[in-house]
Every structure is written in C-alpha cells, then in structure tokens.
TrEMBL record:
Reactions catalysed: L-cysteinyl-[protein] + hexadecanoyl-CoA = S-hexadecanoyl-L-cysteinyl-[protein] + CoA
Superkingdom, taxonomy of origin: Eukaryota
Database matches in PROSITE patterns: DHHC
Organism encoding this protein: Echeneis naucrates (Live sharksucker)
Keywords from the named record: Acyltransferase, Membrane, Transferase, Transmembrane, Transmembrane helix
UniProt comment concerning the protein's domains: The DHHC domain is required for palmitoyltransferase activity.
Pfam families the record matches: DHHC (PF01529)
Record field: transmembrane: 20-43, 49-67, 167-191, 203-227
MF annotations from Gene Ontology: protein-cysteine S-palmitoyltransferase activity
Family: Belongs to the DHHC palmitoyltransferase family.
Name of the protein described by the UniProt record: Palmitoyltransferase
UniProt membrane topology term: Multi-pass membrane protein
Broad EC category: transferase
C-alpha cells in the first residue's frame, strides 16, 4: 500500500472520531435516562411511562435527522457543467489566463450560471474540471464540488449542502428539543439528589451528569440553530454570510433572497406537512437558483442541462424538477399563486 494512500485512509478513519464521540454521548444519555432514571429512580408508573413515551419520540426524530445528515451523499454538479471535449482540449493547451476565460465564458453562456469570482471571472474548479454552478464550492475534505455548499461539518463527517441542509437544520432542532426534554424531566430528581432528598445510589452520578451535559449541549446547539434559522430566512449559506456572492454587477449578500416565505420554502419545500420530517422536500435541483438581480428561466435552464448530459442518474435529488418550478416575470410587484404553486415572482433588478 502506497504511503499516500495509507495516510489518506488514516485521515478518513480519524474523520469519524467526532461522529463516534457524539454517538457515545447519545448512547450513554439513552442508558442514563431510560435505565438509571426511569427504571431505577422514578417510583410512579404513570410518570415513568409518560416520560418514556415523550423521550422516545424526540430521541427517534433526533437520531433519524442526524443519520440522514450523515448518510446523504453530497450532490455534485451534473455533466452539463463539464467542458465539452473540444473546449476542454483547447483550455488545457492554452496557457494565457485571458484566453482560458474566453473559453469558459463561451461554454457558460449556455448554462444557468450568474455568479463570478471576486475578479469577475467564470468560477471553474480545476480539481473537478467543471464550471461551478451558482452557490457551488469545492470541499477539500470531501474532494468534490458540492451544490449549494454551506460548510463541511466534522460532527457529521459530511458536507452540508443542497442534498442535506434541511436534514442538518432539523438535526439541530431535534437535538435542542431532545436536550430540553431531558432537562425538563430530570431536574426534579437532579435537585433531590443534589439536596440529599434521595439516597446515594449508582443512579446519582448518571442523573447529575445527564442534567449538566444536556444543559451544556442545549446552550451550544441553540446558538448554532438560531444562526442557521437566520440563514434560512435570509436564503444564505454560511459561506455566503462571510463572503457575499458576486454577480455581473458586483457582490450582493441578498442576491438570492426572495422574501422570508420563499426563502423558507427553498429549504423546507412548499408542503408544510413535510417540514418536520427528515425527508427531502427542498425546491429546485441545486444547479440554478432564483435571484433578485437577474432573470432566470428555469424551464430553459432545465432544457439546457438535459441537452448537455444531465439526467436523474447523476445522483442529485429531484434532478428532473425545474429550479423551484418558477418562471420569472415582472408583475407589478405581486405574486400569483396557482394551485398552491407560485408561478410568477417579481424580479427586483436593483442591487
């Protein structure tokens, strides 16, 4: 085995250490709550059963959303964003950066790409050899370009992006609620053990430590959840919050914001009944996005992507769905709703 390959395998194994730590903490919390609290400490059967039912509901939703975040493979750009063979050969032979940019611009004219680098150039990934779709970034840890990349999270050992951002937000929400349920139900027994109203048993350590751990995790997770809910409301990724996306007329941190309700719908979908479940319901295909700065025709974008080799087999969720099922038209500042689907959105051309 080559040394570089061995080091890469060791690095990948080490990347699972944070996930293992979280699972050990969660596994211990399950044992401490179910066995030490409910079985050995709570004397009342009705109270014990009600605590167990509530606890298991939130435990199930928490672990479901957590593992969906971990197991959802990041979505990468489709073949439509690869350079055609002739242009690729020409690009690789060309040594002048200006000439290379002209080649990229020629190919990008047929793609729904509107963001640029800080210098105004077409965003091209040399590692993946693709023109980057809007909001797409290369992750050095995952070694791939990730659609609508938010960040790489070591606690799930995965990139958080278009394919699993909803799961990640739900994971934070249910983790917070899981901690709240533990703190709210454990506190009375925590106080009794702390004030010596209950005899010292093997459950005392677990109950005291369980309350402290749940409270500390709740404080840290709540701050992160609040930040990501704010990002959802603004329709920004963590990357875009620190570095505003650059359009043809300059950077604009609110370039993808369509109003609070539409921003939320992009992540959670337009069917409220699916919002609380970690199932994919986000709008669009991750390749093209509505903006308030430029006109994008999703039907045309879909046609271009299909003609350039994009297919559902490429692995993107809902890859056959046009971007948000929305057509851009100016309509005197009003939105039209037809059968629960927004079919027209006002485009504000001002920065």
């Amino acid at each position: 085995m080559a040394p570089s390959h061995a080091l890469r395998c060791c690095k990948r194994a080490l990347n699972w250490v944070p996930v293992l730590f979280i699972n050990l903490v969660v596994g211990w919390s399950y044992y401490a709550y179910v066995v030490e609290l409910c079985v050995y400490t709570i004397p009342n059967n009705a109270e014990r059963i009600s605590y167990l039912v509530i606890f298991h509901i939130f435990f199930f939703m928490f672990t479901w959303s957590y593992w969906k975040t971990i197991c959802s493979r990041p979505s990468g750009p489709s073949k439509a964003f690869c350079l055609p063979r002739a242009e690729k050969e020409l690009y690789e032979r060309e040594e002048r950066a200006e000439a290379q940019q002209e080649i990229l611009k020629k190919v990008a004219r047929n793609l729904p790409v509107y963001t640029r680098t800080a210098g105004g150039a077409i965003r091209y990934c040399h590692s993946c050899q693709v023109i980057k779709p809007d909001r797409c970034h290369h992750c050095s840890t995952c070694e791939m370009c990730v659609l609508k990349m938010d960040h790489h999270c070591p606690w799930v050992n995965n990139c958080v992006g278009f394919s699993n951002y909803k799961y990640f937000v739900l994971f934070l929400a249910y983790a917070s609620l899981y901690c709240v349920v533990i703190c709210a139900t454990v506190i009375q027994y925590f106080i009794k053990f702390w004030t010596k109203q209950l005899p010292d048993t093997h459950a005392k350590f677990h109950i005291l430590f369980l309350f402290f751990v749940a409270a500390l995790f709740f404080i840290s997770i709540l701050s992160l959840l609040s930040y990501h809910l704010w990002l959802v409301g603004k329709n920004r990724t963590t990357i875009e919050a620190f570095r505003a996306p650059v359009f043809a007329n300059g950077p604009d941190k609110n370039g993808f914001s369509l109003g609070f309700s539409r921003n939320v719908a992009e992540v959670f979908g337009d069917r409220a009944k699916y919002w609380i479940f970690p199932v994919f319901s986000s709008l669009g295909d991750g390749h093209s996005f509505l903006t308030r700065l430029v006109h994008i025709d999703p039907e045309q974008a879909k046609s271009v992507l299909q003609q350039n080799g994009k297919s559902p087999a490429d692995g993107e969720p809902n890859s056959s769905v046009p971007a948000n099922n929305i057509q851009h038209t100016v309509d005197n500042g009003k939105e039209k709703i037809d059968g629960g689907q927004m079919v027209s959105v006002t485009v504000n051309s001002e920065p």
